[in-house]
Amino acid sequence: MTDLMNTRPDIMLSARELFGIDSDLEVPAFSERSDHVPEIDDVYRFNPDVTLAILAGFTRNRRVMVQGLHGTGKSTHIEQVAARLNWPCLRVNLDGHISRLDLVGKDSIVVRDGLQITEFQEGIVPWSLQRPVALIFDEYDAGRPDVMFVIQRILERDGSFTLLDQNRVIHPHPCFRLFATANTLGQGDLSGLYHGTQLLNQAQIDRWNIVAQLDYLSHDEEVKIVLARVPAKADERGRKLIDAMVEVATLTRRGFAAGDLSMLMSPRTVITWAENCEIFRDPALAFRLSFLNKCDEAERPIVAEFYQRCFDQELDESWHHATDGKP
């Protein structure tokens, strides 16, 4: 395993050549991959503005938060940029089970020379701080308050981290980078989509240097993504099917924005629907199993109308069958 502590970026890459964005930015990168570098997804499609924001994080050591609705590929976006830079990456989901001790570290009993001794085991934060690692905090707006205050210490660009139990101050590696993804911007969620998100300390939000917003792709781009993920649909008939599926998804998003629906179809759900079409060989059945059955019962007729509009096929009959227990 590569000793990350003694490695640094050793080449410069063109953002224009690597990501096809209109920028003269030269980005530091590693010539060799290590165990912590994500695998490259050749079909991932980059949002130019968000890519530029993430590259600024890597190049200028800016703290970058990517905010957006579910299924837009926020975390994957950061990982795929890191993958192309061969930059080691560590992704941590701030769910309710991540504690302060997980981040900071704790004393553990280990066996040395046949004897049990107590030894301090570094947590996620001190381990990452000492290495050229891009640390990504997923679901940042769902973190517990005690956990968030631990993170606040390292949000300053040159902020040191004090291990009180060890009487030791850790200074960040020059190539340590910090990113986060969030569904909300720390002001709570009134839509009901993201139960469990928290109101965040605004002093902490203020410490993020760059906040990029990742929206859903355009219709044509989303079609290309789904076709890339489900290549069996790459013929003319399949393309027409995927085109109609993406249009259904677009209508659910408009319905959500208008307050008619409490749930919307993300690109992830469209891909799942297309994959399920390969299993069940019936777009209507796959639609019910992939999305319709997740919707509030009172909203299902609206969703069924969207399906009928895009597929020129009634879904009402099969929807009634699905809700009254008939085969």
Automatic annotation (TrEMBL):
Record Gene3D superfamilies: P-loop containing nucleotide triphosphate hydrolases
Superkingdom assignment: Bacteria
Pfam families to which the protein is assigned, alphabetical: AAA_5, CobS_N
Ranges for domain Cobaltochelatase subunit CobS N-terminal: 5-37
Residues annotated as domain ATPase dynein-related AAA: 64-189
GO MF, any single term: ATP binding
Protein name (Swiss-Prot/TrEMBL): Cobaltochelatase subunit CobS
